[in-house]
UniProtKB/TrEMBL annotation:
Residues 7-159 form the AraC effector-binding domain. This is GyrI-like domain-containing protein. The lineage of its organism: Bacteria, Bacillati, Bacillota, Bacilli, Bacillales. InterPro entries: AraC_E-bd (IPR010499), Cass2 (IPR029441), Reg_factor_effector_dom_sf (IPR011256), YobU-like_regulator (IPR053182).
Length: 159
């Protein structure tokens, strides 16, 4: 099966605070993340009804820091956005992402290609005179998520 990659640069925009509830995935090496994140995301979808105050439409949101500053920031969060964090279901965690400025690229294609698409986004950031801020939260906001194709806004923090 030939993979197709479709990208659209959406420029730089400020995204308001995000309150998230879901699962934190921590792995020893990058290869494991490729296996564990989809498992956590599927489990999250199965348990969606347990989460209070979901923001509609419900989008899967991934969050991580490229340059985490502590063990508490290590990993990848697979979450749903909520209006308020209340009664977090057993086994899940909550996370609040502050308002930040992001370079945004929309990607449609197979999830295995996302890591390569970040190279395109990072080049766009440099070419357009922005500076990445890897110590801040990166967001992946999915409007579609499946085994075959994702539709996701990759949001890389910039200043």
């Amino acid at each position: 099966m030939e993979k197709t990659k479709r990208i659209e640069y959406r420029g730089v925009k400020e995204i308001g605070e995000k309150k998230l509830v879901g699962f934190r995935v921590v792995c020893e090496d990058m290869k494991e993340f490729g296996e564990e994140i989809p498992k956590a995301s599927m489990k999250l979808v199965e348990r969606k009804s347990e989460i209070k105050h979901l923001v509609e439409p419900v989008n899967l949101i991934g969050a991580f820091k490229v340059a985490e500053e502590s063990q508490d920031e290590d990993g990848y969060w697979s979450c749903f956005e909520v209006e308020a964090i209340e009664d977090v279901p057993e086994g899940m965690v909550s996370l609040t992402i502050p308002k930040q400025k992001y370079a945004v690229l929309n990607f449609k294609g197979h999830s295995s290609e996302i890591i390569d698409v970040y190279t395109d986004l990072h080049q766009w950031i440099t070419d357009n005179g922005y500076e990445r801020t890897p110590e801040k939260w990166t967001l992946e906001i999915y409007s579609e998520w499946s085994e075959n194709e994702d539709n996701v806004d990759l949001c890389d923090p910039v200043k």
